[in-house]
Amino acid sequence: MSEDSDIQTTPRGFQCTLCNVHLPNTASLDQHVKGKKHRTLSTVRATRKTQEEHSVFVSGINPEVSQTDVAEYFQQFGAVTDVIIDKDKGVYAIVQFTETDSIQAALSCVEHKLKGLNLRVKPREKKEFKLIPKKKNDPKNLQQVLDCLKPDLCQLVSVNAQMQHIVERFQLGENEKKARSLLVQLMQEVFVEFFPDSKILPFGSSVNTFGIHSCDLDLFLDLENTKVFQAHAKSTTEQAGEGMSDDGRSEDSILSDIDLSTATPADVLDLVAMILKRCVPSVNKVQVVSSARLPVVKFHHRELNLQGDITINNRLAVRNTRFLQLCSGVDERLRPLVYTIRYWAKQKQLAGNPSGAGPLLNNYALTLLIIFFLQNCEPPVLPTVDQLKDLACEEEECEIEGWNCTFPSQPIAIPPSTNTQDLCTLLAGFFSFYAKFDFASSVISLREGRALPITDFLSQNKEDDGLQEDQPTKAHQQRLKLGPVNLLDPFELSHNVAGNLNERCRHSFQRECQEAEKYCRSLQYQQKSAKGKSWGLMRLFTPHGEVQPSKTEQLTISIPFKSASLPEQLCNELHTAGDSFRLLWFQRVCSAVEGVLKSILKCNLAPSKDAAFGEDSAVAAEEMETTEASVKSSLSDSFDGAETQNETSPVSAVAVGAKRPLSSGSDTSVSPQSKKPRMARRGKPEFPPWICVQKHIVWAGRRKVKRELIKDADLRPEGSCVALESQVTARIIEKEPELKDPLEFSVQPQMLGGTESTRAVLKLEPTSDQTGVFHDFFHFLEAFLPKMVETLLEKEEASA
Ligand code: UTP
């Protein structure tokens, strides 16, 4: 099939039948056909077609017949390039020849006999190539699983009982644990043959007390002793002459192929993969993944239908698994909470989705979030990692890769918590804790049991002064990958366990927590329904997809505080601003917003008629005095080339004259400096709105104009994309007629943070929209504004 025949014209544009996508116009069609997806699928289809045309289908073999047997037999009809045997039952094979003529030769032979078996040879079926979309966690399937749980859950008497039921229903059974342990034992026996003195250690969900049926088997192959063995054997061999090592093991063992002290992880894993394939019965689908943060060998065990991973550089994971086991033993409420929250997160597609629908929280990260919440309960349910360290005795001291991993080996060493809250209350508490958590401005530390201020991690020039023992050192802090959720590993303090999450995941997690919090306040959560209706956990577990954004949410544009993408100089300034960093950042964002509206989109900005400030001005005056000095310099910085910061700016009004308090570190719901969450908060700071007038449809056809400008050297503007975007607007204004009635709308900036994730929110509202274009403009701004604000913040730095 040629590329052209993949494209069909539809009333709404085009449809690519290969990739199953709709394309509104020829420009997007052009881009799509040149794009990666379309090109990859075309290549895959062509390869499949060639394979089909060069191969035959062979049935009648059995598992004793090997790939080599089949290849050798079919060589008589022509050169064989590949043989694929079905892995599960080994009853059929696909034989691929170099030449298509060989197919005819094989098909015309009347009888095929191999190892006493009668083989049947058929032409390959010609299947139409179809894109099978990745299976996502279909809400329908999730609902079906939940429906099976419903009768049992609904008849229980309390949420506490429901949570215990979830543990019983999902936990690994004794037989499953035994089967896993036997497999580990078998692998140990096999590996020690090839890698003397090696150890294979399970970690993760199989052994951390939170495992569920069919969870994967994570293994760490510890080769430290093997390295010692090899070094010793080498020196002895050198002394004694070639041939035999001191314990009589022959030199032609697998170890003679590799020097463990210098080999790369990928080399070692290749060997591990080979051993798994050849020597461990029932193991298939062996694959080395060297690109992962920690390279692994993945495998599948047919009989146990078990997925497994083997890593060789993961001693810390074995230790953090011991930590999770310890926490489980310290307080028996942890397991039901973890099982319940993991199930909730799966239903809401927030975590643990192996089909890979986007970056999700991994189970380890989610468990750490639960432990952190329990450290922050009043009184705490679990101790901090630092407290655990102090409770350990000398023999329990442990350091791995330079990180302190000391904690007691037995739960008995830890005094029981005085917190008596039941499971139902703690579960509701978890949702409420994270519903209000300021992820953007915090770094979660289980080590200290508190949220550390993000500003400590922003500056490259931070001094180590004042850092306590075990706090991340300067070098470690610099390496921490900041993101929308910053969750420090309890031991490897330079690792952000949630570093894979994007802003969307953070938002979904928090929105679901807010929904759950609201539900947990209702009677349906706490009381069994007398009419047999869903209650308690059942309604909490309803799959994702039912939360509708509220109407007000639809008309606001959120600009999150993204610590990871801030320019360096601003990072340093925010670091110096400390608790007042939000004010400083908000200043910059508002300047940039004003710049986008005025200079790039050529809106007329008029002063607001009701620019009045709310209550609290006395307190505000005091607070502003302290913050004013630190932000003074930023106030005088005007938006580069955009004639902003005039007297109509709400920001200048607020910052210079109005003395309205701004939420800062002192207004946090979970104070970075104190362990206790502060729930009380004053009204959110609001500012007088900008009144904007737009006379042209500057949002329509921008891409086309941009392409024209880029192509035309005479028109192409010098400099950044800001200049280009301004020119795009100018061109549209030049060419397109004015709106009959100009669109007038207000933009109300607001800063949030402390008791929720730090961000600037712009509330937009039409004040005059005779031509009904406001919603189109709004949808355009939703994507355009945050992107341009980010660019302007960077530009400001570049031009500084
Ligand atoms: P998982 O996130 O897979 O957790 O990490 P799990 O409890 O095993 O859940 P399943 O497998 O999804 O059911 C597995 C282990 O890997 C280590 C931890 O020891 C964790 O228990 N790990 C994971 C880390 O050390 N750091 C990470 O960032 C992630």
- The separation of the N and C termini measures 55 Å
Lateral strand order in the biggest sheet: 5-6-4-8-7
The helical percent reads 40-55%
Strand segment count: 22
Structural class: alpha+beta
Uncertain spans: 461-468, 610-683
What binds here, in terms of ligands, is: uridine 5'-triphosphate
Mean pLDDT: 82
The best one-word shape is: globular
Question: What does it look like?
Answer:
The protein has 800 residues and is of the alpha+beta class. Among the domains are: 89 residues, RRM (RNA recognition motif) domain (Alpha-Beta Plaits, 2-Layer Sandwich), CATH 3.30.70.330; 125 residues, Beta Polymerase, domain 2 (2-Layer Sandwich); 207 residues, no CATH class; 35 residues, no CATH class. Strands 5-6-4-8-7 form a five-stranded antiparallel beta sheet. Bound molecules: uridine 5'-triphosphate. Uridine 5'-triphosphate binds next to helix 10 and helix 12.
Question: What is the strand and helix layout of this fold?
Answer:
Elements: E1 7-10, E2 13-16, E3 21-23, H1 26-34, H2 36-53, E4 55-59, H3 67-74, E5 80-85, E6 92-97, H4 101-108, E7 112-114, E8 117-123, H5 139-155, H6 159-170, H7 174-194, E9 199-203, E10 217-222, H8 224-240, H9 265-279, E11 283-289, E12 296-301, E13 306-311, H10 315-330, H11 334-347, H12 363-375, H13 385-391, E14 399-400, E15 403-404, H14 423-435, E16 442-445, E17 450-453, H15 474-479, H16 503-520, H17 523-526, H18 537-540, H19 551-554, E18 556-560, H20 568-577, H21 581-600, E19 604-606, H22 617-636, H23 650-658, E20 690-694, H24 702-711, H25 721-735, E21 743-752, E22 759-768, H26 774-799
Parallel strand pairs: 10-13
Antiparallel strand pairs: 1-2, 2-3, 4-6, 4-8, 5-6, 7-8, 9-10, 11-12, 12-13, 14-15, 16-17, 18-22, 19-20, 20-21, 21-22
Helix pairs in contact: 6-11, 7-9, 11-12, 14-16, 20-21, 21-22, 21-26, 22-23, 24-25
Bound molecules: uridine 5'-triphosphate.
The site of uridine 5'-triphosphate has 17 residues, from α10 and α12.
